[in-house]
Write a structure and sequence with these properties.
The structure is a single chain. By secondary structure, the chain is mostly helical. It has 11 helices and no strands. The radius of gyration is 16 Å and the shape is globular.
Length: 207
């Protein structure tokens, strides 16, 4: 039922932040099985599953999930979750080389400024950032990442903000802005340590 689905989805999210991607996919998949199709919890479970599949390099599973998200939300109550799930799936598709599928999903997203939730706006901006990098526009990529980080800060979503700080640092390095990359990466490492995000901290250390 809904309560079990919500619990399993939260478990998937917790596994994701610990870098336990196989467990995240398992819990996300189980969550999607026990809630109503196209319900907000179902969409959020798919969001977690797509991210985990990308990190595991499971292109076939990710492609199937992305295809299931290409339609429109069936009701207003699930619209925000639907946009969030499509944004995450689009960005994940780029990570495993499913460029055309990722582009179709990202191009179908609502304008970020029209969305009420700062978290969802952050998801959309992050997905658009991934598309601009694929298109060879690293300056626009960085600007969108910085805006996405601000949206997650606005919503109080410190984990996503921390993750975006790492991406901003990396984005500045791509542009040769090595000194300016140090601040976001230092902030990300400190925040990851406070929040217990050891996986994020380890990624930040790579840069």
């Amino acid at each position: 039922g809904p309560a079990l689905g919500s619990l399993l989805r939260l478990q998937a999210e917790a596994h994701r932040w610990r870098g336990e991607n196989a467990y995240a996919v398992r819990c996300g998949t189980d969550a999607a099985r026990v809630v109503a199709h196209d319900d907000a919890e179902w969409l959020l479970a798919l969001r977690e599953t797509t991210i985990g599949c990308a990190r595991l390099g499971d292109r076939d599973a990710l492609a199937a999930l992305c295809e299931g998200l290409r339609g429109e939300a069936r009701n207003d109550a699930s619209r925000a979750a639907h946009v969030s799930a499509r944004a995450a799936a689009g960005a994940a598709a780029f990570d495993v080389g499913l460029i055309d599928l990722g582009r179709a999903l990202v191009n179908s997203l609502d304008d970020a400024q029209s969305l009420e939730s700062a978290d969802v706006r952050g998801d959309v901006l992050r997905a658009r950032a991934a598309l601009t990098l694929v298109d060879g526009a690293p300056g626009a990529h960085l600007a969108l990442l910085e805006e996405a980080a601000l949206r997650f800060e606005e919503s109080g979503n410190l984990r996503e903000m921390c993750d975006l700080r790492v991406a901003v640092g990396r984005g500045r390095q791509i542009l040769g802005m090595h000194q300016r990359s140090l601040g976001p990466l230092r902030e990300a490492r400190a925040a990851a340590s406070r929040l217990g995000l050891h996986h994020v901290s380890a990624v930040a250390e790579l840069y």
